[in-house]
Amino acid sequence: MDLQTITYLVVGATFALYIGIAIWAKAATTGEFYIAGRGVHPVLNGMATAADWMSAASFISMAGLIAFKGFDASVYLMGWTGGYVLLAMLLAPYLRKFGKFTVPEFIGERYYSQTARLVAVFCLIVASITYVIGQMKGVGVAFSRFLEVDFQTGVMVGMGIVFIYAVLGGMKGITYTQIAQYVVLIFAYTIPAIFISLQLTGNPIPQLGLGSTMADGSGTYLLDKLDLVVTDLGFGAYTEKKGSTLDMALLTLSLMIGTAGLPHVIIRFFTVPKVRDARSSAGWALVFIAILYTTAPAVGAMARLNLTNTIQAGPLGDANANLVYEQRPAWFSNWEKTGLLKFEDKNGDGRIQYYNDKNKDFAARVEAFGWKGNEMTKIDNDIMVLANPEIAGLPNWVIALVAAGGLAAALSTAAGLLLAISSSISHDLLKGVFMPDISEKNELMAGRIAMAGAIAVAGWLGMNPPGFAAQVVALAFGLAASSIFPALMMGIFNKRANRAGAIWGMLSGLLFTLIYIFWFKGWFFVPGTEMAANKPENWLLGISPESIGAVGALINFLVAYAVSKITAEPPEYIQHLVEDIRVPKGAGAATSH
């Protein structure tokens, strides 16, 4: 059976499963639509949280970053998993004990201010929309290759699937769908990794294969082999640190506190029956996430080695070593059709020259070879995980499984983000501010309409993404870190924090981060600034746009603290409320205020 037929069968079966679950778990009340009726077991919630969390950035893009950035990309592993420690220890149980539906609702009541609630809604929507762009990019990448449709059509199909199960089932439907999606994505990620690890090292455990010797009997370790291969082509050694220590530290911190501030993750802890279950859920989520995150470095390294060896098959400078373009393997031409892989024969020799043409020390050598520049003009990071099984020559059913896994990862997170957006509109804006007397039936309908609108906006932005999926997601983490996380932390642990401090803190942190990102990504539409801004040498103290969220969070904390000090204390009942939230009574059922 050919690959496309198998892919349609596998992906179609998973989509039928998701839609069937949504019909079975259709939300009938606002409690089921927003928080699944608070009846989800902590282990199942941990699995759903892991699927919600492990987005297209984790499944599709992270290993691609690791493949091309090497050691420097380890910050994504540390930052994205480290955030769960903060969630479990500092936020999840306290927010669950407060007993509300949404993050803006907590901020509005804790800071006794509708204005604070509105600012929180704005921050939530900005961070969530930025995040969901990356998911739609992942959906488009997977569909465009494996279902042989164009990128835009792939995004639209993904929008339709999310619309059916997210709008119909709300949090209840999304939760049980995400459990199924976790099973699909984790098998889809680990099975190809096991196959490829066996091929390259003879070790079936990818985590151990990464540190093993090659299976060719040479005694060379895989990472040493990869270092040799990439440096021979003028790239930096795979295992060496290339970026600045300050930027890597700030990016790690930004990803950690961004994790703890992302509303679509936080609302998952509102779905469990008891306070102690919230902390347990975070622990289980980290276990389920670790299975993929410990596999990702092996997937990235092995994908880079296989890709490079396919194109450069022998010693550098040997004309017969470069792959003849007309004899390129099927996977190469398949990915060329998507526009995510591009070749240009710059010297007209019919062969593919793949090397770092920006390496000045390498220029004299390649000139002697008659090369006119790197002819692999585009290798999108986001194709590496999806193309890896094809490059390695794995069976078609494995390739189809990877396609289903990539879609499961993207769709599960997209659904969680869209629910966070729609609940902030229907519950926080409509019921909380503008129409407090709205009936439960009409609020539920408003939530579904808001979800449909959010899907349409997310789809349009996904068709015009500003970068790789993981890069876009990293920006979303910076926005969440600089706006929502400090307000939550001070709301729980600082009785003196007041509404003026929270409002000015959130606005200052968010605006600083947004301006920095737009300026240094070159998105301010001023002629001549785009290319000049988007260069590391122009960044403030070498801090990248993906890392600036940590600085924005510091500004948020400082502004909130200073403003709270010079303005009136919170009312006494709010201070008692903060004390009550922190009282360690997690063994019993949650209280509601």
Report on the architecture of this protein.
With 593 residues, the chain is an all-alpha fold. It has a single domain (3-303, 387-582), classed as Sodium/glucose cotransporter (Up-down Bundle), CATH 1.20.1730. 69% of the residues lie in helices and 1% in strands. It contains 24 helices and two strands. A two-stranded antiparallel sheet has the order 1-2. The longest helix has 51 residues, at 151-201. It is globular. 54% of the residues are buried. The model is unreliable at 525-532 and 586-593 (pLDDT under 50).
Brief synopsis:
By secondary structure, the protein is mainly α. It has 24 helices and 2 strands. It has one domain (3-303, 387-582): Sodium/glucose cotransporter, CATH 1.20.1730.
Tell me the fraction of residues in β-strands, as a range: under 5%
Major sheet description: 2 strands, antiparallel
CATH architectural label: Up-down Bundle
SS element count, helices:
24
Which oligomerization state do the chains in this entry correspond to?
single chain
Distance between the termini: 59 Å
Strand order of the largest sheet: 1-2
- The residue fraction in helices comes out at 55-70%
* Rg calculated over all Cα atoms: 24 Å
| String of helices and strands | HHHHHHHHHHHHHHHEHEHHHHHHHH
CATH superfamily: Sodium/glucose cotransporter
Descriptors:
single chain; Sodium/glucose cotransporter; two-stranded antiparallel ribbon; 593 residues; globular; mainly alpha; 2 strands
What is this structure's SSE topology?
Blueprint: H1 3-24, H2 30-35, H3 42-53, H4 56-69, H5 74-98, H6 103-110, H7 114-146, H8 151-201, H9 206-209, H10 222-232, H11 245-261, H12 263-266, H13 275-293, H14 296-311, H15 330-336, E1 341-342, H16 360-369, E2 378-379, H17 384-391, H18 396-434, H19 440-463, H20 469-493, H21 499-520, H22 530-533, H23 549-566, H24 572-582
Antiparallel strand pairs: 1-2
Helix pairs in contact: 1-8, 1-18, 3-8, 3-13, 4-7, 4-14, 4-18, 4-20, 5-11, 5-13, 6-7, 7-8, 7-18, 7-19, 7-20, 7-21, 8-18, 8-19, 10-14, 11-20, 11-23, 14-17, 17-18, 18-19, 20-21, 20-23, 21-23
